[in-house]
Amino acid sequence: AKEQGRNTYQFYTEGMQDREVMRLELDKDLSKALANDEFVLFFQPQLDLESGDVTSVEALIRWQHPRRGLLSPVEFIPLAEESGRITDIGRWVILAACRQLGRWKNGQCRNLRIAINLSGLELNDDSLVDHVRNALRSEQVDPSKLEVELTEEIFIQNIEHNLNQLSKLRQLGVQLAIDDFGVGYSSLGYLRDFPVDLLKIDRSFITDVTERHDDAVITRAVINLAHNLGIRVIAEGVETEEQLQFLRDHRCNMAQGYLISRPVPARDLEKALAKGILSTGL
Ligand code: C2E
Ligand code: CA
Ligand code: CA
Ligand code: CA
């Protein structure tokens, strides 16, 4: 047992060291990733449940790492937040999303909106709003085509600053969505004090929504709360037909998840829409 304990311990420290080495290495690589143009946006369709059309897509960043292949944001966004590189990455995301909207302006994708993710740290940046304005202008994009997804964390710290940033974004005409709604530990007061366009019900409530009574109750309550406040609702993480039917039955406005499509490169999205696998209603 002692022998085993020692091995376990060694294994554990080795694991820790590996992770630390990998972290440092990734952080170093991250410093070159922007200059080397290694980031790419994938797009996941958001389905309007009333019309049955894809009316928007969420932009999800990936890192095409020269040696490790395609990396998920969960592997590098936290790192980028620690080092402060998130600000520059966020600026790239904003510009890339606006460029995509610019490219889609005249084709079958012309009605699509793009939702981007911004972390609380990105909201700290005082020049964020200028950057968004400039990106929209340089690509000549209608601001209402851009949506920003933010988590409730922004209503816990720096509240005044964050609300100020949000109202400036909204004055530009950008739409605001609350991401991962229901898991953020913030009060609901902001829904009264601040105009939000969209609530995204967190995937953790949707996963078992057709099996667990409590998840169904919470999901219905969130939909009703939002609707009574004049806010639209989207459910994330929809993986089954049963979940989709539940959401339709309870008048959820939109749905997003693997059932409809995984996040895909822009070209794949365009092809799927062209083939009529997904419809924008044109
Ligand atoms: P999120 O904003 O909550 O995005 C949803 C995540 O759930 C995405 O993971 C998406 O691929 C995944 N997903 C979508 N549908 C399903 C489903 O049906 N089942 C399951 N199991 N998962 C589903 P992804 O792309 O790995 O992104 C993870 C997180 O990284 C995002 O969570 C977001 O917080 C962050 N992120 C992604 N792109 C950006 C970005 O450009 N900037 C910032 N700051 N954060 C980003
Ligand atoms: Ca999101
Ligand atoms: Ca989410
Ligand atoms: Ca999430």
TrEMBL record:
<protein>
    <recommendedName>
        <fullName>cyclic-guanylate-specific phosphodiesterase</fullName>
    </recommendedName>
</protein>
<feature type="domain" description="EAL">
    <location>
        <begin position="23"/>
        <end position="277"/>
    </location>
</feature>
